[in-house]
Write a structure and sequence with these properties.
By secondary structure, the chain is α/β, with parallel strands linked by helices. The protein has helices spanning about 5-15, 25-35, 40-50, 60-70, 95-105, 110-125, 140-145, 150-160, 170-200, 200-205, 220-240, 255-265, 295-310, 340-350, 360-370, 395-405, 425-430, 440-450, and strands spanning about 285-290, 315-320, 325-330, 380-385, 410-415, 435-440. The protein is globular.
Length: about 450
């Protein structure tokens, strides 16, 4: 493949992975190729990154794709060291190889020797017989054989003995970081080999984790939810701004007599220019109803983080969680509280579940009965949930009465739109009462916020 073809395919793969790469930026990257040493792979990587990557969150996906389109080595290359390093052939026992790995993990898990070791281990232990069309290389086989985690205690004792002044936490963090580097290097070499056998495009689509703004809330891991926490506060500020009506001076409000008279002094006392009082900006209040059932666990954790952040932006926020009954959880999210502690307290102390099966109709009726006065003409109502009610009556009339009292009402649904109304979903029926928006990730939430019109009633 020619360099220009590889460049075009690489840029296309970045776009397919969700990175916003414009035509102009692709051309900038192409121009950069003419001023860098193409044989210096890391220089080439940074030239591409400087011209194509806009956000830190997009860098991991970029690195994975760069390693696929511009691999460090190609199988069967010079000296054959790619398949199996000369020092790590079949004569070396597993225990001897673990000793070599321990040396890398205690020192610098980087450099040519480390990468050669990784390629040798993948070449020796990573291949698994597979049928036609199935991948034949696995990281799991390598990691299970060498089992780097089981070396931690031994390495920690040795490292502390050799460097007596080194704190145990520092030593443990260094070892853990090097183990992650080894695991990532093994995974990268496995992907390279699969790409050579099956095609780069095929492995690229399955290898790249979505960037943080495109992580599916329903499938996010704990580590990914921690990443999402950093995205919450800017979104909360933007949502509060969009729901606040900002009036412009001039065409609205009552006559400002004093300022009109003052302006008339320049025209001999004739009030040629009238000055109107600006209306006071609407101070928004927010009521959040959050589905906390297991079916939307990842989404509910994120929405509770959002609720916590919104408390700092609105004049008044009341938060409620539900499964088959509803309870107010505002007190758990008091300013200054730790958000994770608040979520833990909510799950153990709040009365949100009695039978363990989501029942939206019962929740709306219970909410109207106990907390109906929480919604008023200054209130924005935000409902967060998948609209799956286990085939129970949806109580549409109750929801209609609640939303009629609110200034605005919105519903964010974490399920893909093509799954709405499947099974026990009542999404379309609820959507006739409250505008329902698909909200599976940060990007869709940001798009919803940008489209939100604070001056329009639901």
């Amino acid at each position: 493949m020619r360099l220009t073809d590889r460049h075009v395919a690489f840029v296309g793969a970045l776009r397919e992975a969700g990175l916003p790469v414009s035509v102009a930026e692709g051309l900038d990257a192409a121009r950069a190729l003419g001023v860098v040493d193409l044989l210096e792979r890391e220089t080439l990587r940074e030239a591409y990154a400087a011209t194509l990557v806009k956000r830190v969150a997009h860098r991991p996906a970029f690195d994975v794709l760069f390693d696929l389109w511009f691999p460090a080595v190609v199988s069967g290359g010079v000296s054959g060291a790619d398949e199996q390093g000369p020092e790590y052939d079949e004569k070396s026992s597993v225990e001897e190889l673990r000793q070599v790995l321990q040396g890398f993990l205690m020192g610098n898990a980087d450099g040519p020797a480390f990468r050669e070791f990784v390629r040798g281990m993948v070449g020796r232990f990573g291949r698994v017989p597979a049928g036609a069309g199935r991948q034949s290389w696995f990281s799991y086989q390598v990691l299970r054989t060498l089992s780097p985690e089981t070396l931690t205690a031994r390495m920690l004792d040795q490292l502390l003995a050799e460097r007596g002044g080194l704190a145990e936490k520092v030593a443990r963090d260094r070892i853990s970081g090097n183990i992650r580097k080894f695991e990532e290097a093994v995974a990268a070499d496995v992907r390279r080999r699969i790409a050579e056998e099956s095609g780069i495009e095929r492995i690229a689509r399955s290898s790249v984790r979505p960037s943080v703004d495109r992580l599916d809330f329903l499938r996010a891991t704990k580590a990914e939810l921690a990443q999402l926490r950093r995205e919450v506060y800017p979104l909360a500020r933007r949502l509060a701004t969009r729901l606040t009506i900002r009036q412009k001076r001039g065409h609205r409000g009552r006559l400002d007599f004093r300022r009109t008279v003052r302006a008339s002094l320049s025209t001999g006392g004739v009030p040629l220019t009238t000055v109107l009082r600006p209306k006071r900006p609407h101070k928004p209040e927010l009521v959040v109803l959050c589905d906390a059932s297991d079916s939307v666990a990842g989404f509910s954790q994120f929405t509770l983080l959002l609720t916590f952040a919104l408390r700092e932006q609105f004049t008044k926020v009341r938060a409620f969680a539900f499964v088959d009954t509803v309870d107010e959880i505002t007190k758990y999210f008091a300013p200054g509280a730790d958000v994770l502690d608040a979520i833990t307290r909510m799950t153990t102390e709040a009365d949100i579940s009695r039978f363990g099966r989501t029942n939206y109709g019962a929740v709306f009726r219970r909410f109207e009965e106990r907390y109906g006065t929480a919604i008023g003409p200054k209130t924005s109502l935000l409902i967060l949930g998948d609209a799956r009610s286990n085939y129970q009556p949806p109580a549409l009339d109750t929801l209609r009465r609640l939303t009629a009292q609110a200034r605005h009402a919105y519903w964010l649904n974490p399920e893909p739109r093509d799954q709405w109304d499947s099974g026990d979903s009542v999404a379309t029926a609820y959507g006739t009462v409250v505008p329902m928006h698909e909200c599976r990730n940060i990007a869709q939430l940001a798009a919803f916020i940008e489209a939100t019109d604070g001056g329009t009633h639901a």
